[in-house]
Q: What sequence folds into this?
């Protein structure tokens, strides 16, 4: 059920039914408050994960680097369109976050004056600079271990942090902000499926759950600690609250 002209995937896949898979170039954004790196997710990377684009090979598997890049771009495009439609008619102009940036080494990128660590994905807001960044080696390793659904969730979660900024939502604890972002990511994906702009194949819902388990906090981590994201049970519940209930499930209309 791929669009005419699109490649047929070699295995069960989550396919963004978009006219173009390449996201638009970074857009100009209005000056925004100073921000901090929004994530500290560091799940275990499967053995054999590779490093770097300069001659080194990435983790071998059934999915190629090209498929990985296409899925990242497709998730970006889908998120841009989804949130633009949600903002339409509200009287608030929508500013896309822009193209996500891949990095390969610890501290290769910075958010303001903070270096972004490896095995991570972040939403960065620093002055007038706004972007999503992801460790390509880590994300590719989880992509191969879990499935392509993880990439759509990953981009959806980071994009949700940008939506929280646009809506000026405030949270007392980081765990509240992160679980709310999981819910918004679920709404983005569930609504896209219901609207027919995204097709789920067999096993994709299980992949979402596996991905959420991979980025969950350790059960012993204090919930009130800065940087806490939630246990696997909390993250899965928040995601599917949005997936099944749309934005109303996330207390947004």
A:
């Amino acid at each position: 059920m791929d669009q005419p002209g699109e490649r047929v995937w070699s295995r069960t896949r989550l396919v963004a039914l978009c006219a173009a898979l390449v996201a638009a170039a970074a857009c100009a954004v209005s000056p925004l408050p100073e921000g901090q790196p929004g994530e500290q997710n560091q799940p275990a990377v499967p053995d054999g994960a590779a490093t770097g684009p300069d001659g080194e090979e990435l983790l071998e598997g059934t999915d190629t680097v090209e498929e990985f890049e296409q899925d990242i771009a497709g998730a970006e495009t889908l998120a841009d369109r989804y949130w633009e439609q949600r903002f339409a008619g509200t009287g608030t102009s929508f500013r896309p976050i822009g193209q996500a940036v891949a990095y390969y080494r610890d501290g290769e990128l910075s958010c303001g004056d903070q270096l972004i660590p490896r095995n991570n994905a972040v939403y960065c807001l620093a002055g007038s600079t706004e972007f999503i960044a992801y460790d390509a080696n880590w994300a590719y390793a989880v992509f191969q271990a879990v499935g392509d659904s993880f990439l759509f969730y990953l981009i959806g979660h980071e994009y949700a942090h940008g939506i929280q900024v646009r809506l000026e939502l405030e949270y007392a604890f980081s765990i509240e902000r992160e679980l709310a972002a999981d819910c918004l990511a679920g709404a983005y994906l569930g609504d896209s499926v219901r609207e027919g702009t995204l097709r789920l194949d067999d096993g994709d819902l299980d992949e979402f759950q596996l991905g959420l388990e991979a980025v969950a906090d350790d059960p012993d981590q204090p919930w009130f600690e800065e940087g806490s994201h939630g246990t696997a049970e909390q993250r899965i519940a928040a995601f599917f609250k949005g997936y099944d209930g749309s934005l109303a499930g996330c207390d947004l209309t």
Remarks:
- The first helix runs from residue 65 to 87.
- The chain has one domain: 21-250.
- DSSP finds six helices and seven strands in the chain.
